[in-house]
TrEMBL record:
Transmembrane segments: none
UniProt name for this protein: Cysteine proteinase inhibitor
Signal peptide: none
Gene3D superfamilies documented for this protein: 3.10.450.10
Organism: Ensete ventricosum
Amino acid sequence: MATLPGGIYDSGSQNSPEVEELARFAIDEHNKKSKPNIQLDLFYGMVQNATLELVGVVKVKEQVVSGKIYYLTLEAKESNGEKKLYEAKIWVKPWMDFKELQEFKELDDSLAA
């Protein structure tokens, strides 16, 4: 089945080494952005944006643009051991050695099913 340029489609490649590497990249980038907030959160008695550890990739969608945008649904474990689902949007241009985490958000439980 041919895919339309610009269309988002299910990839089905959640077990590929490339997707695993992108998932780790997304978690690492999220953790880097979260660290400046941790001390302030601890001061106010709330730990948000805690460091995450990748558990696995649940779903992969791709969009062909100038490069590819990957939409990864990830299962990650927070520092307290709680597992949650997140969505990461990663833009990749391999010929430019370019990779950017554009969005990272926790999925609502009702959307996770």
